[in-house]
Amino acid sequence: MIDVAVEAGVSKSTVSQFLNGRFEYMSKDTRARIQKAVDDLNYVPNNIARSLKTNKTKTIGVIVRDVAGSYTSQAIRGMDDYCKSHGYNMIIYNTDFDSDVEAQAVKSLKLLNVDGLIISSSGSNEVLIKEVARQDIPIVGFQIEHDEGPKSIVISDVKKAAFEATEYLINLGHKRICFFTQEFRTVKSRLEGYLGYSEALAKYGIPVDEQLIQYWHRGKGFLNPPENMLKIDNAPTAFFAQHLSISIDLLKAMEKSNIRIPEEVSVISFDEIPMAEFFKVPITVIRQQSYKIGEYASKEVINQIQNPGGSPQRVVVPCSLIERASCKKLS
């Protein structure tokens, strides 16, 4: 830094301000001279040494459940773009939905002295996560919300989206709407989806039929195959899947059983299915703004790093209903 300062004809503190992105009181000429000196001397700041002095690494830890998932990959891109533009790096851990791997990831990132943490939590390590947060490491949740999870969170407006999708089907004449979901009573964001569905039914005087609430389990699949639902008395005329993985398994099962969409049953997916618009029958979906959610999560965690002591923020991002050909109007 001293060499850069001498080369540029400025003070060491000015070089420090430049390297930390604080340009408010620095002229363009000064910035240009420092940048030229940095380039000419091939100077690279030693972040390990800097972190020992400042206790800051300019690094954000990110823990996700499935790094290859469509939602997750777009959210990570939003995080990365925002972090890069604000001088932060990211370290990403993938848990494959394993709570033990998640716990190890939290501990590892703490040992790496990350400045903040963004997590799509399993809900099984909330005591550990709270303990880390008490050690002045800001934590922001995203994608899925648990009652005891991080207080700062960026989440889709699942309830409103589920309400609008159910109302859309009702306005097409559907009263028997089968709701495919995971166990939702212990997961707040899944419960929100159910509440949106049930409140839309209530608005139109349609009672919730527990037989039409069907469950899917990661690893086990559907507890009751969807093709069986079309064989019951007063069978459903529409399927509403609450997760991308559920939607994919639902479409596979329907293809295997030669169930025609939308002639035999209409289908809506919560979350965009990759390439869905190019299917033989393009699928109507609720589209989440996953890139924006990632961007907002990074913005919130960096804001907490730079302004400690602020109030937790719960950011709710709207979804949109994308109408395609998979939903039929009943006569």
Question: Care to describe what's here?
Answer:
This protein has 331 residues and is an alpha/beta fold. The protein folds into three domains: 2-45, Orthogonal Bundle (434 Repressor (Amino-terminal Domain)); 58-156 and 290-317, 3-Layer(aba) Sandwich (Rossmann fold); 158-288, Rossmann fold, CATH 3.40.50. The protein contains twelve helices and 13 strands. Strands 8-7-6-9-10-11-13 form a seven-stranded mixed β-sheet, with helices on both faces. A hairpin with a 3-residue loop joins strand 7 (213-217) and strand 8 (221-222).
In short:
This protein is an alpha/beta fold. It has helices at residues 2-8, 12-19, 28-41, 47-54, 70-85, 99-111, 126-134, 158-171, 188-203, 226-229, 244-256, 290-306, and strands at 59-64, 89-94, 116-119, 139-142, 152-156, 177-181, 213-217, 221-222, 238-241, 266-270, 284-287, 314-317, 320-322.
**Helical percent range?**
40-55%
Alpha-beta classification: alpha/beta
Apparent shape: elongated
CATH H-level name of the largest domain... which superfamily? Response regulator
